[in-house]
Specification:
This protein is of the alpha/beta class and 885 residues long. Helices cover 46% and strands 17% of the residues. Strands 14-24-23-16-17-18-19-15 form an eight-stranded mixed sheet. Strands 26-27-28-29-30-31-32-33 form an eight-stranded parallel beta barrel, surrounded by five helices. It has a five-stranded antiparallel sheet with strand order 1-2-7-5-6, sandwiched between helices. The chain binds phosphoenolpyruvate and magnesium ion. Its EC number is 2.7.9.1.
């Protein structure tokens, strides 16, 4: 039907919607795909994402068509497996799982073993010949269903299980026999009846619809919303629901369940990687209740672990699994993340998807898959998420630095992180909000911890394997993570922890090495990353496919050098005001601002000239002939003023003006709305001698460097916050005059350009006229966003979260360009500018120049370059290539 698509059991739909992720979700599409290529997939059906949206919009109501579709699809499963739903003699059991368009690990709900009740459990016991298995499955079902669907606190069940084990003198779940599970089921049912005032539902159809509703509802849960916001997933997508015949990994010692990757998701190495458990169900592996075992012999031996790997313990099933790995990689041409179950020696595939991976692994896989002939270079370039490169560009621990190792866990997500220990997610978020570096330390993380994981520099857990939620989510976020540190114990009451015989308290600083699993006391120094190897190879491929140039926003020599190492092809924005804050010259700057007249200002400017000239010389030398855009002074003058009494007193001494006079001048400069006040070119219009000094410094430096190096130095002088043609005309004349004067003095001339920023709506609208004067435009999308939306750059962070949560903005418009609104102005200005001056050079230097989605827009608009902060340069190179492909 249009609402439900079946898969497995020999069906194959012609309707492309049956394999379309937007309709049946990622999990549903891949299950249909796997079944279609003949892999052993238990039969099932998928309810579309459209039904989820309809259900949520219509106030939690199922349509008659959906009910009919589900009934028919259930019939398909019954026929395929030869069992029937609710039949006490031989019951069909199903799993009910969510599956959105993109995977949201652990963010939504799953129910297993659905279809069990007091009667069918007996049938399951008889048919399987295994009473213990049947009652174990039933108690799992009651616990999961009650938690996910009925909203009963899962701790109540966990506590009851602990007590049952204690009463019987057992240590582990595996010690529990059939009668113990049966007794526990009785207690579980009592818990439900007590908590809800009604019995646990025995009607299997009521169970099924309850689970479907819960999956739909989980789309709008708080944790799903937070996850969506962090990962730019739209709330309109909805989730599909997958209902599938159960297969059992907990039918004794010839049964098992596991999670595997076709390549190592942490390093990218071409080696199967995974975890499995004998006689267990899927949840046992990911929940970290039992410690999973290694999949391959090699991995087990490398870790020095004892329990047999699947390769050793179940060679035949493992062999089949390895064949499936190869088949899936060839089919999807990407690394796959797989869930499987072995039921009495027979292998079943429960899920496959493109696996999440660290940036390092993504690079290595992309490069190696090209070498293996699996994909081409362009695909490799498209395969790596530009934002993930960020992980690689940041420092790692200095291998030579001493390490005070407290203990070790699993290397779950690479990278180095130092920070203060914090024991809960809310505190982590609060302290990080104050700018503190924190490490979130938990027994295990649950999806409710996601905001704290995001706020933390790193994550440490006592429990959970490499595929635990903590590990998967941390890798996705690029947070270093050490999981499963079994020597770690936490006392939440005292807010302390013990590890390696040492006691620490919340607030103590530790360092994590996510690549080795080391947990260290104190702060360990770091070293700069290496930009060679796979990174270098992929970047070369990206550069081949890129049309736009990538420049950087930088003004210090260190930043300029770093940006060049990262591949910057020039400077797109040198913010000269940053140079004015330098401690050695701030008093001259203040003297300039507070001067009563032009003569006073000129005296102060004379002190600043040699300093500015030296700044620009250093930049021209480092950039060696690459284009350098220097923006003349922009900020409101009051930003430079002293604030404290001591600062006033110090300044008074330095420039011999009385404190009272200084304070009066400072008061006069006070502005109510400085962002729209006396800043940008308005400073140049009213105090031309400031811009004149800067222009002089630029041209003197350029002449000196050109003379010394013989290289062409082509400065691009940029006028900020222009709204009218006339402003630019006046200031361009000033720059031209100054250039001619310098050239005459130096006895040489050089090429230069004068252009403007487009950062006010009027400038965008009047771009045709402004281009008569300006030789280039650089879109200052920070201010253009601020002024187009009437949204303060400095004050909006407080409420933008609510705007994103409510879907008013998909993303923070200061991070990712508002293409629909602000983008129109950019497009229009580009068109009008080009209409006047065909070869006008167009670039962007707002923060958006380092944001992949905004870069894609710039490519479409035909800009010549983007300019990004140094660490974003590689991201921009890759994003620009992806945009061009
Ligand atoms: C801008 O407004 O986008 C810009 C680059 O200038 P600044 O951020 O310095 O205001
Ligand atoms: Mg600006």
């Amino acid at each position: 039907s249009a609402y439900v698509f079946t898969f497995g059991g020999g069906v194959r739909h012609e309707d492309p919607r049956s394999r379309d992720k937007t309709i049946v979700g990622g999990k549903g599409a891949n299950l249909a795909e796997m079944a279609g290529i003949g892999l052993p997939v238990p039969p099932g059906f998928t309810i579309t994402t459209e039904e989820c949206i309809r259900y949520l919009a219509e106030g939690a109501d199922f349509s008659d068509e959906l009910r009919a579709g589900v009934k028919a699809a259930l019939g398909h499963i019954e026929q395929a497996v030869g069992k029937s739903f609710g039949n006490p003699a031989d019951p069909l059991l199903v799993s009910v799982r969510s599956g959105a368009r993109v995977s949201m690990p652990g963010m939504m709900d799953t129910v297993l073993n659905l279809g069990l009740n007091d009667e069918t459990v007996e049938g399951l016991a008889a048919i399987s010949g295994d009473k213990r298995f049947a009652w174990d499955s039933y108690r799992r079902f009651i616990q999961m269903y009650s938690d996910v669907v009925l909203g009963v606190d899962h701790h109540l069940f966990e506590d009851a299980l602990e007590i049952a084990k204690e009463d019987n003198g057992f240590y582990a779940d595996v010690d529990m026999e059939a009668e113990h599970w049966q007794a526990l089921v009785g207690e579980y049912k009592q818990i439900v009846a007590r908590e809800l005032d009604r019995p646990f539902p025995q009607d299997v159809n009521e169970q099924l619809w309850g689970a479907i509703a819960a999956v739909f509802d989980s789309w709008d849960s708080d944790r799903a919303k937070v996850y969506r916001r962090l990962n730019d997933i739209s709330g309109d997508w909805g989730t599909a629901v997958n209902v599938q015949a159960m297969v059992f990994g907990n039918m004794g010692n010839t049964s098992a369940t596991g999670v595997a990757f076709t390549r190592d998701p942490a390093t990218g190495e071409r080696a199967y990687y995974g975890e499995w458990l004998v006689n267990a169900q899927g949840e046992d592996v990911v929940a970290g209740i039992r410690t999973p075992q290694y999949l391959t012999k090699a991995a087990r031996e490398r870790a020095g672990a004892k329990p047999l790997s699947m390769e050793e313990a179940m060679p035949q099933a493992y062999g089949e699994l390895a064949d499936v790995f190869e088949l899936l990689e060839k089919h999807y041409k990407d690394m796959q993340d797989i869930e499987f179950t072995v039921e009495r020696s027979k292998l079943f595939m429960l899920q496959t998807r493109s696996g999440k991976r660290t940036a390092k692994a993504a690079l290595r896989m992309a490069v190696e898959m090209v070498e293996e002939g699996l994909i081409d270079e362009a695909t490799a370039v498209k395969r790596v998420d530009p934002m993930a490169l960020d992980q690689l560009l940041h420092p790692t621990l200095d291998p030579k630095a001493p390490r005070d190792v407290l203990g070790k866990g699993l290397p779950a997500s690479p990278g180095a992180a130092s920070g203060a220990i914090v024991l809960d997610a809310d505190t982590a978020e609060r302290l990080a909000g104050r700018g503190e570096a924190v490490i979130l330390v938990r027994v295990e993380t649950s999806p409710e911890d996601i905001h704290g994981m995001h706020a933390a520099k790193g994550i440490l857990t006592a429990r959970g394997g490499m595929t635990s939620h903590a590990a998967v989510v941390a890798r996705g976020m690029g947070r270093p993570c050490v999981s499963g540190a079994s020597q770690l114990s936490i006392d939440m009451g005292a807010r302390t922890l013990k590890i390696g015989g040492r006691s620490l308290k919340e607030g103590d600083v530790i360092t994590l090495d996510g690549a080795t699993g080391d947990i260290m006391a104190g702060l360990v120094p770091t070293i700069e990353p290496e930009l060679v190897g796979d990174f270098g190879t992929l970047m070369l491929w990206a550069d081949k496919h890129r049309r736009m140039k990538v420049r950087t926003n930088a003004e210090t020599p260190a930043d300029c050098r770093m940006a060049r190492q990262f591949g910057a092809e020039g400077i797109g924005l040198c913010r000269t005001e940053h140079m004015f804050f330098d401690a050695s010259r701030i008093s001259a700057v203040r003297q300039m601002i507070l001067a009563e007249d032009e003569a006073g200002r000129r005296a102060a400017l004379a002190k600043l000239l040699p300093e500015q000239r030296a700044d620009f010389k250093a930049i021209f030398e480092i950039m060696a002939g690459l284009p350098v855009t220097i923006r003349l002074l922009d900020p409101p003058l009051h930003e430079f003023l002293p604030h404290t009494e001591a600062e006033f007193a110090e300044l008074s001494d330095a420039i011999s003006i009385g404190v009272e006079t200084l304070k009066r001048r400072a008061d006069e400069l006070h502005e109510f709305n400085p962002m729209l006040g006396h800043r940008g070119c308005r400073l140049g219009i009213t105090f031309p001698e400031i811009y004149e000094m800067q222009a002089r410094a630029i041209f003197e430096a350029a002449c000196e460097v050109a003379a010394a190096s013989g290289e062409a130095v082509v400065p691009e002088v940029m006028i900020p916050l222009v709204a009218t043609r006339r402003e630019l005309e006046i200031l361009k004349a000033l720059v031209d005059r100054t250039a001619q004067a310098v050239f005459a003095e130096q006895g040489r001339t050089l090429g230069y350009m004068v252009g403007t920023m487009i950062e006010l709506p009027r400038a965008a609208l009047m771009a045709g006229e402004i281009a008569e004067v300006g030789e280039f435009f650089s879109f200052g999308t920070n201010d253009l966003t601020q002024t187009t939306l009437g949204l303060s750059r400095d004050d909006s962070a407080k409420f933008l979260g609510a705007y994103v949560d409510q879907g008013i903005f998909q993303r923070d418009p200061f991070v990712s360009l508002d293409v629909d609104g602000v983008g129109q102005l950019v497009r229009l200005a580009a068109q009008r500018g080009r209409a006047t001056r065909e070869d006008i050079k167009l670039g962007i230097c707002g923060e958006h120049g380092g944001d992949p989605a905004s870069i894609a827009f710039c490519e479409k608009t035909g800009l010549d370059y983007v300019s990004a902060s140094p660490f974003r340069v590689p991201i921009a190179r890759l994003a620009a290539a992806q945009a061009a492909l």
